[in-house]
Amino acid sequence: MEPNINYILEKLHNRTPKELAEIEKAYEFAKKAHKDQKRYSGEPYFVHPFEATKILAGIQVDTPTIIATLLHDVCEDGVATPKEITKKFGKEVAFLVEGVTKLGTVKYQGIERHVENLRKMLLSMAEDIRVIIIKIADRLHNMQTLNNVPKHKQERIALETLEVYAPLANRLGMGKFKGMLEDMAFKFIYTKEYKWLTENMTEAKQKQEIYLAKVKQKISEELKNNNIKIEKIDSRVKNLFSVYQKLLRKDMDLNRIYDIVAVRIITNSIEDCYATLGIIHRLWKPVPGKIKDYIALPKPNGYQSIHTTVFCINGKVTEFQIRTQKMHEEAENGIAAHWAYSIKGKPKEGGKVNKEISWISELREWQKESAGSHEFLDSLKIDLFKNRIFVFTPKGDVIDLPDGANPLDFAYNIHTDIGNHCSGAIVNNKMVSLDYPLQNGEICDILTNKNKKPTRTWLNLVKTNYAKNKIRSYLKRELGIEIVPAVNLQKIRNYEIKIITTNRIGVVKDILAMFHKNKINLSKLNTEASDKKRPITTIRFCTRNSSLADQTISNIKKVKGVKDVKKIQIIK
Ligand code: MN
To answer: Which of 37, 160, 203, 373 is deepest in the core (most CB within 10 A)?
Structure first.
């Protein structure tokens, strides 16, 4: 498609006239700068930055990112200087363009360089995530046009995509991008497998989709009967590479993968997510152990949804994913979805319920607090790995540790023997003590001495549970000292409760809200409809905190329509 600025502007009608004028200026600048350059396909080079920008305009990144994406290759190709960019587009845009240019100079050349590349990316990430977002869009378009690239380069680029960019997109919660990058790389790296899978999956997919049409109809009716209005119900198809990875664990038998297609229900509120879950479980028996509540406990990349697998129509094992519209956008576009929300105005959901530990909500809080554009910019320069540090071995391997970890943690992370015989450490060429708090990006060299042994004091020194466990097991094995970890004093208790209710619509929803309020995850939920007048809801959950469990149960007793709660405690 011939570049035309209208394709970009039509997605950005929420921007001010001043911003749009800047975008147009950047468009013309980049077009002119690249005018004598061609891509491998023979197309004008400008097609590339244009298409990359279109991708990001589609997910509503902020205006400086749009401008920087248009300009992302002008410095690398030497057709413009960073000075010029600063003068014409300001410091912020120049900073982003420079970030992308810097990353572009590092190419994947086997494992050694790959680590180096990864390291630079991670460190730059700490400075500004938008650089990574531009790189991801850049890579997405390069992968879309990889066919035109000389054969000997294709594999390197595809491998780098699979090993560096797809995981980064995933880390940023950009699920849609991650899936696209993986599948395009998959095609070039495992050509035969890709062909086999696309051929075989079409049939499996079609079968599943016909079946799911029935499931969707049934669940839609049932939701309607219960007055739960939903935003959307559709099916999500697992991306090819994910199916492939699962196949490797399932003897390459497609019939053993039940979630090629899953039902996805988009609701209007968190409460409705749980209510929908209740209805699904009332209709069909859940497969034990397959309920995952990522709303109460989001994945590390911020992903939120409820997943459940049930014995559905005709007893077929079927997966459901339930989430709100906002969670859906975040799952697809990740961190970028936040700009979309901040641009559109106030987030749709109150946010209070949602205030967990995840970095996503931290970012949201910062965005709310920082009204001025300058502060807003600062807030974007967050360290994505806020509570993590990356420390390197002298060989360049990356060790991922929690903030505050020391050389002893580092040593145990490399190898138990190295931990057990650790006698000292050199960090960035300086001797440090074993309790020295390591910093992001440092290079740590562990000194060992075969006469050195773990002592009890080491237990208080290390920050990671991993190292603690290793030290504990050494002390027990070699010295017969058994140290009971504090957490084990509080046993995890499993609770099962039976709740007898009236037939009031919404009663299950209100009960679930009590669990949600106390951040307790359910492992089982079942409502028996056999006795129409007095349905019995069985809920199983676990917690270390028995008073929290009691409090939740007493809250449930107060819910309108609840007649009786019977508690059965199962101690594991
Ligand atoms: Mn590029």
So the answer is: 160
